[in-house]
Design brief:
The strands form four sheets. The protein has an eight-stranded parallel β-sheet with strand order 4-14-13-12-11-10-6-5. It has a three-stranded antiparallel β-sheet with strand order 1-2-3. It is an alpha/beta fold. It has 15 helices and 16 strands. Helix content is 42%, strand content 18%. β7 and β8 form a beta hairpin. It has two domains: 6-268, Queuine tRNA-ribosyltransferase-like (TIM Barrel), CATH 3.20.20.105; 274-371, no CATH class. α7 (156-176) packs parallel to α8, α11 packs antiparallel against α14 (327-354) and α13 (315-323) packs across α14.
Length: 379
């Protein structure tokens, strides 16, 4: 019998929460970080490597899969889980971020969005109803409503109009959604950097009633201090018995700060993108493996890490791979970064359960300060 979709909290520490998210495709320990598999693959990683790194929930993008190879084709091939060899839970982003990021290729209206494909220029119409249908065809465990990811910077008036449109689309998405045991539909809070708009958006989504609640439209250039101010206004306005998902936020300091504020789920391309560009997240800060100081360094990348890159190779070898242009360098650092992120979340979960989150965060930050990593992603 398929279990109902449900978040069961095992412990809290201040606002932070640790629990188990039950789904039709297995359980997820929270707080959790989702590797991003936009086009039914996490770049440079096999499904076995993802599992070995500790991932339990991954993200795919309905917009990109709608364009290529097509949602109907994936359905005919057995669904997204079989297609990408991932039987565990999958969350699919509806395409709301592309409403912002592909601004020159789209036409926005009350009805939805008309895109010109970035692949071949063909026109595609994406409405809230079609976004939900595509995710249903993919067999997404967690479906996201279609929203407009508000650009930044933005005036209060434009942010209000954008939020209002997202709320109308949320209602249409819910009406189109087909509930099944163990599956979920998440609403998305919008409102840019304006706390009152965020609180209003959260309240309207609660009135509609969703299985989980996402916080969208952050990490788009507003800076960490502003993001945390918005989280302080938004998270308390969300239901305590549903998962809370902060979309697209992924620097380690940002994750830790958001967990402390009660966020349960995260996704971001930062660890995989950084791996492809020779950047490694470690317990001692962020390293650039192209740096000449690593050319003769015989030490493991991160002595505290048990991933293959750290167990089997020296920093000097990883430096050599990037200088020689070998793809193995990007693969190993991607694996390391994802392993590091999963270990980071596991440590936060354990600290919440043990009631030691504050001291655990202080120890993490002391290690990072040794390498002086940036506090947020570059714009």
């Amino acid at each position: 019998m398929t279990p109902p979709f449900r978040l069961t909290l095992a412990a809290t520490h201040g606002a932070a929460r640790a629990g188990i998210l039950a789904t039709a495709h297995g359980s997820v320990r929270t707080p959790a970080f989702m590797p991003v598999g936009t086009q039914a693959t996490v770049k440079g990683m096999t499904a076995d490597a993802l599992r070995a790194a500790g991932a339990e929930l991954i993200l795919a993008n309905a917009y990109h899969l709608m364009l290529r190879p097509g949602a109907e084709r994936i359905t005919a091939l057995g669904g997204l889980h079989r297609f990408m060899d991932w039987p565990g839970p999958i969350l699919t982003d509806s395409g709301g971020f592309q409403v912002m990021s592909l601004g020159e290729l789209r036409e926005l209206s009350e009805e939805g969005v008309v895109f010109r494909s970035h692949i071949d220029g063909a026109r595609h119409r994406l409405t809230p109803e079609r976004a939900v249908e595509v995710q249903d065809l993919l067999d997404a465990t967690i479906t996201m409503v279609l929203d407009e990811c508000t650009e930044f910077p933005v005036t209060p008036e434009a942010a209000c109009r954008s939020m209002e449109l997202s709320m109308r689309w949320a209602a249409r998405s819910k009406a189109a959604y087909r509930p099944r045991p163990g599956y979920a539909l998440f609403g998305i809070v919008q409102g840019s950097v304006f706390p009152a708009l965020r609180e209003e958006s959260a309240g309207r989504l609660k009135e509609l009633g969703f299985d989980g609640y996402a916080i969208g439209g952050l990490a788009v250039g507003e800076g960490q201090a502003c993001m945390l101010e918005i989280l302080d206004a938004t998270v308390p306005a969300l239901p305590t018995d549903c998962p809370r998902y902060l979309m697209g936020v992924g620097m380690p300091r940002d994750l830790v700060a958001a967990v402390a504020r009660g966020v349960d789920l995260f996704d971001c391309v930062i660890p995989t993108r950084a791996g492809r560009t020779a950047r490694a997240f470690t317990s001692e800060g962020v390293f650039n493996l192209r740096n000449a100081r690593f050319a003769a360094d015989p030490n493991p990348l991160d002595p505290a890490c048990a991933c293959p890159a750290c167990r089997r190779h020296a920093r000097a070898y990883l430096h050599h791979l990037f200088k020689a242009g070998e793809m193995l360098g990007a693969i190993l650092l991607t694996w390391h970064n994802l392993h590091y992120y999963q270990s980071l979340m596991a440590g936060l979960r354990a600290a919440i359960l043990a009631g030691t989150l504050s001291t655990h965060i202080a120890a993490l930050e002391a290690g990072w300060d040794a390498g002086d990593p940036p506090t947020s992603a570059p714009a």
